[in-house]
Structures are given as structure tokens and as C-alpha cells.
Amino acid sequence: MPVLVASDLDRTLIYSSAALALTMPDARAPRLLCVEVHESRPLSYMTETAARLLTDLADTAVFVPTTTRTRKQYLRINLPGPAPEYAICANGGHLLVDGVSDADWHRRVTDRVAGECAPLTEVREHLLRTADPAWVRKHRVAEDLFAYLVVERELLPGDWVKELAVWAENRGWTVSLQGRKLYAVPKPLTKSAAVREVARRTGADLVLGAGDSLLDADLLLAVDRGWRPGHGELADTGWTAPGITALPERGVIAGERITREFIRAAARTSQ
């Protein structure tokens, strides 16, 4: 039976230059591989070792990128190794099969969101009305499923975030702050539901996972074994659960460690 590896991407496996956390002496810094270019500029990186390990992972597991990114944002990433047969985008709103969204899955998700949550228009209007232009740089809607703000973190009032979280909770939505992005996402829109669907389709006997943000908590609760890096919302709040290993590594080195853990766990299962 196959092993399924469902991993978050940004700040888990791939890292922007601002998130690399290269705290070691320059001469000891790892060699990096650029895996994403946007508007002719390098955007995201892995260590070369992590890239090699991710390529090797295809020999023992079904690798499923599992991201909050939109389909367009995901498809500009050039991950090493074979192209994944499955990928999960928009926090579970789209299940890609060979790069194409599964229409039946998307319809099931949107039907559930419509039946259980306040509409996206209400949430977006609330964000437009209450977020101060002094610290908001962009308002965005992703795939007509959820909304997010690009903010100046040093100016963002913590009380406003807490008040937004309470307001959203009462309407069936959740709030997550990741780097410079503040997400408002309907609760039924989860990575875990999409991962369970891929596990069903592949007949996976073991599911491994990794993630760094509160939006990854439901994913980690759904896997058999998981890892979180030493940075991100989950680390900041001390979040843990049975079967989850909290790693000390931070930044791009954490991504390399996570990929190594995937390889070890998958290899033990295949023996």
C-alpha cells in the first residue's frame, strides 16, 4: 500500500529570501536552488540537499503539495522531481489531478461552504470597512473562496486581529496570520478533507504531513505522522498533537530536515 506525503509549501518546504533564516556564518550557508520565479525575479528556494531528497521521495511515496496558494500561484512553482499527480490548492478548495482541477471535488466543497458559512462578500466588506489603509497594502480574493490582506506586520494592531478572529468565528470562518498575509478562510475549506480524498483514491496505508501555520493544524491532525518547523504560528503558540514532532530547525534548514524525515519514514514503511 502506498505512503502518501501531504506537505504545506511556503515556509515548510519552500522559502522566500526573507524567510530563509540563514543564521549560520556565510561560509557555512547551504547551497540554494530557486524553485519559483515571479515577474522575472527569483522568489522561492530550497536547499540543494532538500531538492535531491524530494526527488528521491518519489521512489517510496506519493507526494502531494498541499497549499493555501491559488492554482495560478502554485503552478508557477517548479519543484524538483516528477510532477505530482495530485496537488491541493486554495486550502483544499481545488484538488488538482495532473494539473487540472477536479470539478466534482470543487463543487462538493463550495456547496458545503455555501451551506455552513457567511458569504465571502460579507467577509470582504468587513475587511474593507475595518482594516486601516495605514497598514494594509493589498486586499485580495483567492479563487472566489477566501480573502486575505497583505499587511505591514510592524504596524498591524494585535487587538484588531483578535477582534476579527472572534467576528469570523461567529460566521463560520477562521483567521490566520502568516508572515505579511492575514487570511480569512471558511471553516469547511480544509486541507485535511482534500488529503483524505487523495488517500482514498490512492489507497494509502500511511499518511505523512508537515506544516507551519494554523491553517495546517487540521492537516497535521489528519495524518498518521507529522512534523512542524521551529518557526511559524504553530511554533509560536506551542501547538502540538499526538504523532507530531516539533523540530528545532528554523527557516530553509527546517525544510531540509522535514524532507529528510519524510524519506526516513517512507523508507521504513516500504521495507
Task: Explain the layout of strands and helices.
Layout: E1 3-7, E2 15-16, E3 32-38, E4 41-47, H1 48-57, E5 62-65, H2 71-75, E6 86-89, E7 94-97, E8 100-101, H3 103-116, H4 120-130, E9 136-142, E10 146-151, H5 158-169, E11 173-178, E12 181-186, H6 191-202, E13 206-210, H7 217-222, E14 225-228, H8 233-236, E15 244-246, H9 252-270
Parallel strand pairs: 1-5, 1-13, 13-14, 14-15
Antiparallel strand pairs: 2-4, 3-4, 6-7, 7-8, 9-10, 10-12, 11-12
Helix pairs in contact: 1-9
Task: Describe this structure as you would to a colleague.
With 271 residues, the chain is an alpha/beta fold. The chain starts with a strand and ends with a helix. Strand 7 (94-97) and strand 8 (100-101) form a beta hairpin. Helices cover 34% and strands 27% of the residues. It has nine helices and 15 strands. The strands form four sheets. The chain has a five-stranded parallel sheet, sandwiched between helices. The protein has helices at 48-57, 71-75, 103-116, 120-130, 158-169, 191-202, 217-222, 233-236, 252-270; strands spanning 3-7, 15-16, 32-38, 41-47, 62-65, 86-89, 94-97, 100-101, 136-142, 146-151, 173-178, 181-186, 206-210, 225-228, 244-246.
List keywords for this structure.
271 residues; alpha/beta; 5-stranded parallel sheet; 4-stranded antiparallel sheet; 9 helices; 15 strands; 34% helix
Structural class from helices and strands?
alpha/beta
Side by side, the strands of the main sheet go: 5-1-13-14-15
Give the end-to-end Cα distance, rounded to a whole number of Å: 12 Å
Low-confidence stretches: none
Helix content: 25-40%
Number of helices: 9
| Largest beta-sheet characterization | 5 strands, parallel
Backbone CA Rg = 18 Å
Nearest-integer average pLDDT: 96
